[in-house]
Amino acid sequence: MLDVQFDVIILTEIWTTNIEFYENILPGYNFYYDLPTEGKVGGVGLYVKNLYTHNHLPSFKLSNSVSLRVENIWIEVVTNNIKYIIGGIYRQIRQLLILKILWMLY
Q1: pLDDT bucket at 106, cuts 50 / 70 / 90
Q2: What tens digit of pLDDT does each residue of 91-100 get?
Q3: Which residues have a Cβ under 8 Å from the Cβ of 60 and sit 6 or more positions away?
């Protein structure tokens, strides 16, 4: 195992079927995630070490549309009286391909 303690860890491609695993794998961290609305592939997860004051920021969430679906999660971490906004964003690559094909057709 890696002998390093990270303050924040961001993961992509967490899939909807793996959430229970991710929620229990790293003791000492809180886990936040955003899953795809359609299907089980994709998603983004964010771990933040318990010793930091932190808040989930749902108001920062990027909106989805028919042409562009993104999973994203945002938190505010406070340490030494300094606030940091940290976000994880995941967009499936196939969406780019679909958009390029549509663009080429017009």
Answers
A1: very low
A2: 876 655 555 4
A3: 72, 74, 85, 87
Residue 15: strand, helix, or coil = coil
| Unique residue bearing structure tokens 């959430």 | 19
Query: Is residue 60 within 8 Å of residue 85, measured between CB atoms?
Result: yes
Cα distance between residue 8 and residue 10, in whole Å:
7
Two tokens, residue 76: 């505010």
Q: What is the pTM of this model?
A: 0.80
Enter the tokens of residue 34. Answer: 């955003």
User: Do 77 and 84 form a contact (C-beta atoms < 8 A)?
Assistant: yes
**What are the residue ranges of helices labelled H in 26-89?**
none
Q: How far apart are CA 32 and CA 10, in angstroms?
A: 10
Q: Is 105 helix (H, G, I), strand (E, B) or coil?
A: helix
H or E element, residue 84: strand 82-90
CA distance 2 to 15: 24
